[in-house]
Amino acid sequence: MAPASLTRNIVIFGETGAGKSSVINLMAGQEIAHISPDSHRCTLHWTEYQITFENGSRYKVFDTVGLEEPRLQTGEYLSAITNACGLVSTLKERGGVNLLLFCIRGGRVTETMQSNYRLFFEFLCEEKVPLALVVTNLERETRMEDWYTRNGCYLEKYNIRSAGHACITAAQLLDGRHRDKYEASRGVLRGVVEAHCNGSMEGWTGGQGWLASFISKLVEFVVGRPKKTDIIGILTKRCGMTKEVARQVVRQMQDEN
Ligand SMILES: Nc1nc2c(ncn2[C@@H]2O[C@H](COP(=O)(O)OP(=O)(O)O)[C@@H](O)[C@H]2O)c(=O)[nH]1
Ligand SMILES: [Mg+2]
C-alpha cells in the first residue's frame, strides 16, 4: 500500500463551461478555483490546486484548458506545444498522473468531447491512466445517476470509455431543493476519486519519449500544415530541446501521419 501521506495527481479536462472549476471547488469543500467564463483559453494551459480530504487523502489537481473545437488551428497548435512541454515536465516532477477526470455537461455527445477524450486519455496518458467521467448539470434529474443509465450507451458508442463515473451537480447557490443534491454530489465525487486513485499506486510518468510522442500525436488535430521550422523553433527555444532532438520529433510526426 502507498503511504497515506502520498499526494496523488489528478488531471481534470473538458471544454470551457463544462464545470471543471466548479468540480474542483466541490471536491475541495471550499472555493479554491476561480469560476469564470473568459480566462485563459490556450489549449493545455493549466492551473494546479492542492486538495486534502477530511480523511487525510491528498491530491494535486491540474485544471487544464482543453479543445474548444474538434480541431486546432496551426497557431494554436504551436502554443499548445509550448504548454505541453510545461505540463509534461511538471507532471513528471510531481510523480506522474494517477487519475483523469473528464468533465462533461449532461447532454449529447459532441465531436469536441471525443477530441478532448483522445487528447488527454489516448495521447497524453496513452490509455495507461484510469479515467472517470464527471457529468455535471444534473440537478434537474430526480435521481442524478439516471442520466448515466440513459446515456452511458451513447458514450460507449463514441468510444468514450471510463472506469467510473460521477453524475452530479457542481453548481453552488442553487435553491434549497438542489442544495441537497450539491452536498450529495460531493460524496459521490470524492467516492469516485478515492476508488480510482488509491488502486493505482504509482503515478504514470510516460517514460523517456513521453513529450515527443505526445507532441507528434497532437498534430493529428491540426488543420493545415504547421511549418517544420516553426515547430523546431518552439521545441528548441521554449521547450529546451536540442536541435537534434527537435528534428527527431518532427520526423516522428511525419511517420505518424
Ligand atoms: N446549473 C449548473 N451550473 C453549473 C454546474 N457546474 C457548473 N455550472 C456553472 O457553469 C459555469 C461554468 O462553470 P466552470 O466551473 O467555470 O466551468 P469550467 O470552464 O469548465 O471551469 C458557471 O457559471 C458555473 O456556475 C452544474 O452542475 N449545474
Ligand atoms: Mg475553469
Automatic annotation (TrEMBL):
Signal peptide: none annotated. Pfam families: MMR_HSR1. Transmembrane segments: none annotated. One of its GO terms (molecular function) is GTP binding. Residues 10-136 form the G domain. InterPro entries: GTP-bd, P-loop_NTPase. This is G domain-containing protein. It comes from Suillus fuscotomentosus. The lineage of its organism: Eukaryota, Fungi, Dikarya, Basidiomycota, Agaricomycotina.
